[in-house]
């Protein structure tokens, strides 16, 4: 049982039941097998019948008691032993060694004695007969302590056990629930914070349980408040930097316009590339400035993009960059129209980062496989390079900001280890999933799954 609630409940419940069993056993242990406790005898009726037949034998002789004992079942005979005046057992049986002291203590002055035979309560009786004869009888009246305890459990203990189990089970359930519920709330809070909801506070849910839990809740809320403030400051800084970038970008646009006015046809292709890059940079800065500072209200996905067309445009734009490394694209898709909700150029930037990353780590003469396929209500985009892949232990880490698996190679190829981190956050904002794995007979494969829009309306 792995849950804390189950462990607390089961442990407290078993403890309560064991305590009840121990209390009952200790309470009754001294009485079990006590020969003075007649209510512990196993056959008071049989004891009365023995006395009745002894009184008859007193008038008629020992033969009557012998005949009566011979007629009894073997189970009864094993509990009754009798010795005549000559010291012989009336049925010719050997006397148990533990019974001999009781027989020795019976005489004309001591007509009755009680003791233990094989840890069982026993009663001895001396009966004088006619003609100076006598009869000494020992009757095993009960069972041993262990047998009496077992009989008590089987007969009268079960109702007590059932009631105790139910009552203690209810009490232990409430106790376990009281102890584990705050921890369940804390686990829920940590998951929400890990998912990015830094505005969640736990004090209202567990603050009133106890002083220690209240202090823990207050410390947790203080931590999340500081994280929220830090994240807000970070967003403000990004916005400020992005805002400052607009001034040199505006000057770049002006310089680009002046260059185009000179009407130098040989530079037109290069100027077009510079203009496209400047427009793209303008879109990115606009997206950053449009993001909310608090992070509690994300912008809606108010645009639509067709995935096949987007990937075709991206691979065309990156052909020259790939050709410099003698790397080619292999794009495979079907004729299905794959519409995805997006916001501005954010999805374009994410997929471009993945493709640039594949170009960066593919060797000269390699190829990059881009496979697009619909899957249920989603579309799956898999980009596989022809590099050396990534160690299995680092497949999760490559999505962390500024993480690079090969420092030297990253410096040669440029970049700061932000491409996949940006892609992961963008895909998550589109309610999608991204994962990386090492493809067979290839390099690293990055698989992006995005929900599709219903185009039937």
Describe the structure.
By secondary structure, this protein is of the alpha+beta class. The protein folds into four domains: about 5-30 and about 150-190, no CATH class; about 40-140, Beta-Lactamase (2-Layer Sandwich), CATH 3.30.450; about 210-290; about 305-450, Heat Shock Protein 90, CATH 3.30.565. The protein has 14 helices and eleven strands. The chain has helices at about 5-30, 45-60, 60-70, 75, 100-105, 145-195, 205, 210-260, 270-290, 305-315, 320-325, 345-360, 405-415, 420-430, and strands spanning about 80-85, 110-115, 120-130, 135-140, 305, 330, 340, 365-375, 380-385, 435-440, 445-450. A five-stranded mixed beta sheet has the order 6-8-9-11-10. Strands 1-4-3-2 form a four-stranded antiparallel beta sheet. Helix 2 packs antiparallel against helix 3 (about 60-70), helix 8 (about 210-260) packs antiparallel against helix 9 (about 270-290) and helix 10 crosses helix 12 (about 345-360). The longest helix has about 50 residues, at about 210-260.
Entry summary:
It comes from Microbulbifer pacificus. The protein contains 14 helices and 11 strands.
Helix content: 40-55%
The chain-level structural class is alpha+beta
Q: What's the CATH H-level superfamily name of the largest domain?
A: Histidine kinase-like ATPase, C-terminal domain
State the major sheet. 5 strands, mixed
Strand arrangement in the largest pleated sheet: 6-8-9-11-10
The rounded distance between the terminal residues' Cα atoms is 50 Å
- Radius of gyration, in angstroms, nearest whole number: 47 Å
Compute the average pLDDT.
Answer: 78
The name of the CATH topology of the largest domain is: Heat Shock Protein 90
Number of helices, counting only DSSP H or I runs of 4 residues or more: 14
Catalytic activity: ATP + protein L-histidine = ADP + protein N-phospho-L-histidine
Domain Histidine kinase: 240-454
Protein name: histidine kinase
GO molecular function: ATP binding; phosphorelay sensor kinase activity
